[in-house]
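User: Structure tokens for this complex, please. No commentary.
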Amino acid sequence: GENVEQHPSTLSVQEGDSAVIKCTYSDSASNYFPWYKQELGKGPQLIIDIRSNVGEKKDQRIAVTLNKTAKHFSLHITETQPEDSAVYFCAASSEEYGNKLVFGAGTILRVKS
Amino acid sequence: DVKVTQSSRYLVKRTGEKVFLECVQDMDHENMFWYRQDPGLGLRLIYFSYDVKMKEKGDIPEGYSVSREKKERFSLILESASTNQTSMYLCASTPEVPVYTFGSGTRLTVV
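Assistant:
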């Protein structure tokens, strides 16, 4: 089955700096790669996703890149703000496995002001 | 505003008790999932359901069962709670495409 590895496990950045979180996946059949943000006391919320026919996607200060050959994808947050502090999860899924999401272990992002 | 509602935010139960965690969604989604979240392990799939009365085991089903009698409700059952089931439990639902909506979670402590 699919296995998703996520790095780093914790990340501290200064407000205004960029943050990058990286994930690798094992199953070449995976074709959907979402990123979720979990704030304290809340469930994870989808912030951006990318499908395998696209190499990059942007939404304001966040972007995701996908390298299918290397089987890795990354989340980029620019101009970080204190409200970006949260736990971020990457995930992967494929139609072959019924669209079930397999999650990475999570990254705790702290933005210091 | 679409919602996945988990009935309890915090639960404390004794070892050996039968525990019910309830999840209700108002989006008419076919698919519902139960995950547990532990530090350093991410979210691990316990059980899922693609339709009423249907259930499938996920990656860590041991010690758990589920019930889906109505489309909007998916219950997770701990038959005999143990301390290693102390965790955050997250319910999610999705239409055919895998865009999940999660509930706020239930933090279960088994003492």
